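Supplementary Methods, section 5.1.

A reviewer requested that the exact input to the structure prediction be made available. We therefore reproduce it here, unchanged from the version used in the analyses.
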Amino acid sequence: MAGFGLPNFGQLTEAFRKAQQIQQDAQKLQEELDGMEIEGSSEDGRATIWLSGNQQPLRVRLDPELLSQGQDVCETATLQALQAAYEASTTTMKERMEDLTGGLNLNLPGMGG
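The structure derived from this sequence is encoded token-by-token as follows.
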């Protein structure tokens, strides 16, 4: 009778081990995303913005020709570049998080799914 609870305890220990591993992997992922440079450009390619994988702004490049075309054109191109970079960064972050937690529901019964 003394060993009755051991299988459950073993499952709990395994669940904690996996949760700890995911936490460590999440920290590595955060560092990886911080180190990324994700580029987005305007439709005409004359404005480019770089964001990290965590959507932190890094750099902006505007073609000199674009600057001579007036404020409205510059603002539109810059916004297009920002939207493209943001979308790429968000997609990258989601994909990496799914890779990290993809097996979580299968490995931890009762945690959704």
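The beta strands are 38-41, 47-51, 57-62. These observations are discussed further in the main text.
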